[in-house]
């Protein structure tokens, strides 16, 4: 336990703030700075958050109050007036309560690899190929930065917001299921499948999505696009449904599943495509594309290139 009254008062204030679901990232940054300033801060917060969150301690305090012949209401919350034995127990309980919240790590996949990760708070994240996602969680907030690639989120509601930085803007949720695709060109596409999310650009534009909504974050603006009737992203099952899209977008999806880089030239990338394409077998899908569209597939060094113009027959 710490004896510094100022630190304990600050810890109590942060513990109270952690119980509110509207904490923002400014609060989170200030809290992390305070926690990192001193081991005494971390010890005090562990004690306070244990007192704030423990059902066992709440029940114990209620029993103490029932046994005592109190003639007037307590002037301070029982949590701050708890006996030292209860406070010591709170520190032990806090190890269970706080540790899962302090989840800082980076998730990454290689080409041709998908990966599903369960966070300590119960949230599930599945990364598509060649993706990188940084996770930072604390008692006040949950945040992630999608540095590249695509990720499917199933966020568990626990009272804290979950904010995803997608480059052109952010996605703010409480508990829901959605997909974020941060493309190589800098744009980010967000598709909501369950729950509700709020999109916000760097310039402050806001758009709330409902299940089935899809929107693009690009050039500092939010642009609603098509409506999805699916219950989850097609890529999680190894498929890509092309509807009002381009060959360039399809090839970008194939590239994530291919262990060999796949690129496309500018003219071919604008060819409109439609249909359902299997992503888990890139060579077969590329061969299908070569037969169906006015393109040819070449291998240059260690890169597969999709070029405009059909392959000319060998006349020899």
From TrEMBL:
PANTHER family: PERIPLASMIC SIGNAL SENSOR AND SIGMA FACTOR ACTIVATOR FECR-RELATED (PTHR30273), PROTEIN FECR (PTHR30273:SF2)
Name the UniProt record assigns to this protein: DUF4880 domain-containing protein
Protein keywords: Membrane, Transmembrane, Transmembrane helix
A GO molecular-function annotation: sigma factor antagonist activity
Domain FecR N-terminal: 10-48
TM regions (residue ranges): 80-102
FecR protein domain segment(s): 106-198
UniProt source species: Brevundimonas mediterranea
Domain of life, per lineage: Bacteria
């Amino acid at each position: 336990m710490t004896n510094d009254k100022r630190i304990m008062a600050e810890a109590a204030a942060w513990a109270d703030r952690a119980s509110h679901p509207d904490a923002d990232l400014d609060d989170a940054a200030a809290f992390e700075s305070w926690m990192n300033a001193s081991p005494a801060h971390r010890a005090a917060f562990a004690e306070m958050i244990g007192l704030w969150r423990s059902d066992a301690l709440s029940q114990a305090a209620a029993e103490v109050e029932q046994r005592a012949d109190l003639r007037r209401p307590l002037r301070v919350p029982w949590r701050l007036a708890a006996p030292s034995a209860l406070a010591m127990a709170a520190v032990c309980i806090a190890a269970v309560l706080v540790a899962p919240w302090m989840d800082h790590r980076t998730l990454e996949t290689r080409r041709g690899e998908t990966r599903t990760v369960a966070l300590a708070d119960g949230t599930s994240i599945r990364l598509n190929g060649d993706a990188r996602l940084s996770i930072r969680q604390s008692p006040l907030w949950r945040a992630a930065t999608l540095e590249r690639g695509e990720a499917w989120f199933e966020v568990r509601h626990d009272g804290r917001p979950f904010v995803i930085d997608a480059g052109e803007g952010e996605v703010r949720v409480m508990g829901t299921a959605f997909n974020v695709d941060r493309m190589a060109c800098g744009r980010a596409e967000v598709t909501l499948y369950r729950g509700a999310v709020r999109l916000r650009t760097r310039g402050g534009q806001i758009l709330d999505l409902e299940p089935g909504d899809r929107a693009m974050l690009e050039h500092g603006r939010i642009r609603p696009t098509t409506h999805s009737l699916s219950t989850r992203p097609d890529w999680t099952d190894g498929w890509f449904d092309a509807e009002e899209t381009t060959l360039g977008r399809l090839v970008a999806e194939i590239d994530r599943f291919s262990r060999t880089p796949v690129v496309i030239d500018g003219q071919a990338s604008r060819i409109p495509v439609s249909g359902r394409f299997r992503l888990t077998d890139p060579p077969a899908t590329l061969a299908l594309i070569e037969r169906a569209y006015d393109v040819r597939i070449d291998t240059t060094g260690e890169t597969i290139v999709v070029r405009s113009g059909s392959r000319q027959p060998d006349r020899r």
